């Protein structure tokens, strides 16, 4: 393949095709690339600087002289091995840099093809592909530049070890970025690569037989060459990897022996080759008288066959050769060097000092170069101070410095064997480095992090004061625990390397799932036993929260131990909800049960299940052995008494089977009124003294209840006939008696006073007394629940309630409802609804605050109901003018008949609601919410003076006791409302109460006439709604007009699109 900087788009295609070719080809792959590179600058800390040294070390032993062959101390080392004693003054570094014989052989064969193209083809005709040809005009040889050799070796090793097969490095580094890291000043560059060829001749011929590769080999703009070879090391890939890097640039070499090597063309023959070129730009420019080879110090003549001669025969240049019998396996290396003498008598040697070795000739010969003085050489180094005793005199005034020294007189320290201190320190002795700050080690190859406490032992110092932390640690000095490998710790904390410590009830490895289940019903723990009363619903509630996205959460309650029960049958709303409510009196007293909740989260990464067991013992009820009501004066048991006047005493004897502490409650009730407590949950009220109010029915039920510490209550009752004492009293006496009673803040006294408000008192008197009773109720320290019942009875005559009394009553109810919340019992909520219903008719048409205060009381009661319910339960309270319902469930499982509170129908857009709850409140589809519904008399908005033909319909959604703002739904909520009878020309117009303008508005609502007495409303938001009358034709016209405008607008948009 061929790459050009003028065809950048072709690069990707070519690289992809070459990678595909590498995978699919059955024969050895080749690749070629060439470019005139842009000017480039390189960071000294590039990874190539590190990898470059690794390549040098890999090839060091092949040179046979050192463990490092990559130094460049005086700038001359790069023009090594050419025998020019004038141009080379110090050889200590030079001799370490000879390329391996397979690389040098490729180099020599490449020069042969350049200088004698047609002759090269003739010599190797049997290896040529028939359609290939070589140019007839020869080219000057390429001079070896070791920087390019390094580049080629690096890339061959990279391809062999990763492995890969491409011009860019296996990590994606661009080709010319890599080459220029080693050789920084090219005007032109090119590269050939190959893999799978096992010999220098086979890879050279493979390139020669490829048009693109041959074009690089015969490129006239190139003067320098480096060949890099690396054998296969990875489990996959090819057997050998080869790289040729071509470059332009001045070589500065005056020795006409350009390169020499040995090769085995036949199994029993070794051929020695030497490229000779003496054109005038090499200096002397004269033909050689003879070229000879010294093998083991014996001279043999070399000849230049016609096929090896330079195309311009007058130059007498080309590739000289000498053939000899190959040594048998196991024999030691033969050493050799080349000598040429020109017509001027100048002598040239290759290498200039020492010997090349016949590496690869047999299995015993594994070295490439021998550092030694050749016979007959008695050089003098007097002119270079006899090498200062730090080297050997190899040629006239030419020193071969000992390890650790360099320079023309070997008077400078060298640190070749310690990688020249890696450019991170100074060479202050023979192979002794003084490292700069931030590095240590013999070759300054180890960065230090002393200012970072050496990474606290939790990481590796990879650069000066730069730590690369181990898994589980982070921070500049690796002193902070890290749990990112497991996705963080969610709700918990990272308290160790990849160790999350989760809070209580948080589970799963990364603390991303919070889960707990508790007994919500009243319980009492004695020792290890948890008791709960079986006489009321037993409620278990769970909480679950997930930080990770999931597709579903499912729940299942099961029985684990205890007397077997059909849990599905005795549960209030089923066993597949997050909460479980077991119906009262479904479990056996004294028995122990264990129930388990299993919750499963399903996500894209799989499913996670968590569970919790809850163990309860059903408490055994206390036993009442005796209960009677007596006249407190005579001590005789009675069946009737005079209200207010007769002092009574109740007595009770009870025991508890568990010996738990018992509390007592005492009071009375009638068929019309709820319980009135004379004493509530008192430890000493086993024989209270009391009087009773009057009752319209003339009868009252006395109750005495016992509750043990485990909240199990038993009760005994007795019915008494009560006589009204006011029948024989004057109005003044009644008034006096009532006023004396309301001087107390005791609710029992106030209850009696309220019962005496009969026909003997005027409406004005009763109105005043009710106001005074309310004042005392507010001041009373008795329980809030007792106040709720009394307020219901106090307001049961709306005509005797002033607006001020009504307002104060609402304020007190609002405070009680907000305070008690989920502790409000269903009977209490019913009393609140009845009280509010009684107060609606007292609304003043000028009181704009009354509606909001009344709504506040109802909403607070609804919040309390919502918080007390479990998933699948509902609570309904119905009175004359106010009807309420709360339903707790998921949106998907919402199922409630709104007719229970007077709403004809209700339909929720489930998908639209779920989407809104998820995006706005992060509530997933498995979350339970509470739907709050209220139907309230239109009187509460009478101050607006809007003609309404329906009650007020209030619809809200709550979560954890908080009202959620529902608006901008993508699909509407629908409900149907019954309205006052209208004729066929009229219809109901759906409106909502706008809290900002304090007016009703129909904007955004859709009204559909079902009949003269029913209308359907569609809305995309929730608030208070009502129906007002309007002309049916007007409504239809409005709807038709809207549809018409929409059709026109849509048509205009389509027309615009088509015109465009």
Automatic annotation (TrEMBL):
Keywords: Disulfide bond, EGF-like domain, Signal. Residues 377-411, 445-479 form the EGF-like domain. The keyword Signal applies. Disulfide bonds join 401-410, 469-478. Gene3D superfamilies: CAP, Laminin. Residues 1-25 form the signal peptide. This is Predicted protein. It comes from Naegleria gruberi (Amoeba).
